[in-house]
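Table S2 (continued). Query chain:
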Amino acid sequence: MFPILHSVVDNAALGEEIRRRWNLPAPVHCELITRGMNDVYVVKSGTDRFAARVWRADKHTADNVTWELDYLAHLEKKGIPVIVAVPDANGDLSFGIDAPEGSRRVCLFEWADGDQFYADPKPDLARRIGGAIAQMHIAGADFKGKTSRPIDFPGEIRRKFPALVARLDERPDDRAFYEKVADVLPKKLEAAYAAGVPYGPIHGDVHVRNVFVTPDDNFTILDFDTCGESHLMHDCMSPAWANSFFIQSGNKKITAQTTEAYMQGYEAVRPLEDFERACLPLFMLSKEFSYMCGMSDGVNVVGHMSFGPHHFDWFAQSVRRHVKEAELF
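Corresponding output:
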């Protein structure tokens, strides 16, 4: 068999397997709606609608998936607006399927109504979302998973940086600059961790596309695929950096006020210590550079998607600006 990195699961077979495991009334309609770091299918049975996620074989172990689903259940009990997994007829929250590239986990989630916050990022709603993320951090303080799921951002940068280098043959100046960043940034992050940046469960990828908003302005925080145990500041700067990226991508509704409102809402619930505030530029750079390394590491699975050569000029300018603001070197 020729090697496969990321297969497409047959939608009809997946729908039938879900119908059988969850005892859903027939007929069941299953349709792929998003494909990337993981694949998401809409599953319809009668008037009920669900979202089925199929994780990549190389992305998470069964233990990692269990940690995420247990964490979501914990947050829901604390009143955080998240979507939780639906147990099957036997009470199981996920199952595995054998794909050409390896075992892939499957889970059925409740359906999230509304549209992405990206479509209409109103500052007053950004403020509420910021407050919800802070509440999420507070609520996660007493979460104890059956296993651990640490996120090693410095280690991930070191491991995935060679994939970024491999894409820069025609940009030697950028490659040389990024090599300095890859050498210094992980050490600076580790020093900030050691100095006492708060630690606990985080979402890992908070941004305007991962929040769905209903017409009456209720919202749900989605896509905990990159969640785990790390330092809370990573969640603080994730939406700030993503907003800057979406602005350059052409979203004229996202402004600096969107980010300011998010941070105001966050600090209204969990005020930052002076030390944390001083670290904000470092964590902004960490989000950006981690993204570049991660997307390069997965380029042969998801394609150029959000980090193709047409973005290289913008990133070259943005990284240099954030390196300066963080006083990295």
